[in-house]
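**User:** I keep going back and forth on a fold encoding question. It is easy to fool oneself when nobody else works the same problem. Could you pick a protein and write out its sequence and tokenised fold? Could you put it straight underneath, so I can go through it closely?

**Assistant:**
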Amino acid sequence: GADLIGAALARAGATHAFGIPGGEVLALIDGLAGAGIDFVLTRHENAAGFMAEGLWHATGALPVLVATLGPGVANAVNVVANASQDRVPLIFLTGCVDAAMAETYTHQVFDHQALLRPIVKATFRATAGAVGPMIAKAITLATEGQPGPVHVDVPIGVAEGQTTEAPAPAPPRRAPAVCAEGPVLADAAARLAGAARPLVIAGVDAVNEAAGPAIAAFCRAQGAPLVTTYKGKGLLPEDDPLALGGAGLSPRADALLLPLVAASDCVVLAGYDPIEMRAGWRNPWEPGTTVIEVAATPRNHGMHVASHALCGAIAPTLDRLAPAPARTVRWQDQTPALVRAALADAFRPADDFGPASVFHALREVLPQETVATADSGAHRILFSQIWRCPTPRGLLQSSGLCTMACAVPLAAGHALGRPGAPVVAIVGDAGLEMGLGELATLRDLGLPVLIVTLVDGSLALIEMKQRASGRPERGVAIGASDFPAAARALGGHGAWVDDLATLRAEAAAALTRPAFTLLACRIGPRAYDGTF
């Protein structure tokens, strides 16, 4: 049974599986290896899932997470929920005892499927004689429509048992991209043609559909500025005059972007998923505005209402929506250009050495093709506004679930998939401590990831919220850790950074090292006040 599962996953594009072995998954790991899928040991199942996602972003390989029964499954719940909210086609393989044994044996045994059902697209229990059809369905469900996690519970007897079952059928070929049709499309095209102030908002679904070139061509032909979610950054190169960067979390950015959205008379939503956005992005346009939503799957989130719902693939639908360049000049008052300039001014460094100056310096010294990952916290909001992406997937983060301890394993997975390509992980001191063991994973795999941690001794974003609501500071202060010493102890290079000259020199040197580099930037307390 394990051999059938491994062969099916390999045919679907899996190259690696990530996790921590347990007795109940040893046959599964062997089955994966027999199909050419390398098993990668991490220090926590949560990190394993993020490494699988990072590899998927780098190479397109189907992400596979393996966990043993009981505590292994429970440890992985966070990253499975993240895959659900961040639209990652994660295959989650878990080991379990056989049904007959579970009737009388309780050690580490609970209902994995009941635990995971609310956060996966589907959950299966492998059955002898039907392993092939089951794993084919799991792969199809994970990858079709909006991608998401699918769970497969594999009893020991099924994994280890001999079978005469034929190999699993190949997942069905994806149907060709189909655009929306009909009178709704025709009316939407007419509304767009008559618009004076069109605007496009794009998100993670456009990234997953590789619709960046189509969106870039659409925006340029129509003179429509583009706002993206953080995961959608780079759909239009962010040095383009029409690119207004990411939105959704920064009050300072939203104060500039939301009035622009309200001023638009035709908003085109291209694969926009508002799961990344905060409450201010609920119905952000004026009543009666033409809102054309293009998405491969129907929207039922309730965050906004669209006047024209076009259910179809993004690229061909945009082509049908506006097959020719606009005949009139849009936004004659040049408001988008003014907003772009104001955004640049809003996030310029205000001091000699603080988080904004650190991020600007990194963008200057690191190659343009550098892929960045960002952990959750105050630094992520500011970094996402400053870091400009020339292509999609240039900034990876947990943006639907916004979970901590994701940046280092995301960077590790990406580095594993693209050896030699520069990758930097931006993480707060608390987030780094939460997943510190993964530095050993970087060491064991020989991955030269650059890690930049912002050291302020606090859960800064939560502390800011406490102050803003008039509450005393509780549960947010953290002690001083010697991060460079920890990096050296775990096989990497570590250095304290207190000025931009040191940062630039150390970041440049990191690009030449065979091992990981950890730069601990001492920015001091309350360094994020007034920055985003």
Observations:
- The CA atoms of residues 72 and 189 lie 51 Å apart.
- The two ends are 52 Å apart (CA to CA).
